[in-house]
Amino acid sequence: MDKKKRTTGIVAFAILALILMIGTIIVKSPGSHESIRELMRDAVLHETNKISLFGLKNVNPGLISAVTVTGILFVIALIIRIFVIPKFKMVPGKLQLILETLVGFFENLAKSNSPHRNKFLGAYVFTAGVYIFVGTILELFGIQVVTTHGTSMALPAPLADINGAIMIGCLSYLVILSGGIAENKLKGVGKTLKEFSLPISMSFRLFGALLSGALVTELVYHYIHLSYGLPVLVGVLFTLLHAVIQAYVLTMLTSLFYGEVSEPARVKK
Of the four, 93, 208, 237, 261, which is 20 to 30 A from 179 by CA? Predict the structure, then answer.
């Protein structure tokens, strides 16, 4: 019986794949008002597709994405603090277990890399990691906004905008600097300033990784002959991989450098 079901499923999948393949051949591409070159250029520079911010100023879509993600996280945090945390039990339920595992992961990351000062570091890497993850998977929801030209577009990941990537890179660098100052005063400042290229490397690593996924997805969606099933696979795969990997990489680098500059200076005998 199981073998029959399996065979039926395989046949049904093969028929569906064949229908989609025939459809891609018969259906012609409707084209686009923008060439693929223009789409790629605008995905990086945001010169064409801008969004009006309450009629005050035209801004990059990345700024709207950043405000949206911040608002979503703030509301979720408020709900969890008011309705979920007071109901925590000694024997955790599923939601409590997920939250404790997530917080514990970043707390252990901070403690293992910065054993001397890690309370603030743990809170920061948790916040940064969650922001990067949620901001990246925002693309999967395809939230539509209207541009100043009257066309609609889906909100991109906030860190696929170079301004957002530079912001979080510089913020992480300032957190590292604060750890050096708190433990070693001026010596800590000197240790941190040695890594003057750190905010640039962190920013562009994050920006390049997230932008590459956005560009590949734009390329696939531009051609209707590739738009049957493939965008789902490409979009979900790139988005989830980048969300997890980039959140881990930035928080790990921040923890490592923070631990290095906040290590107490050895007293000479």
Answer: 208
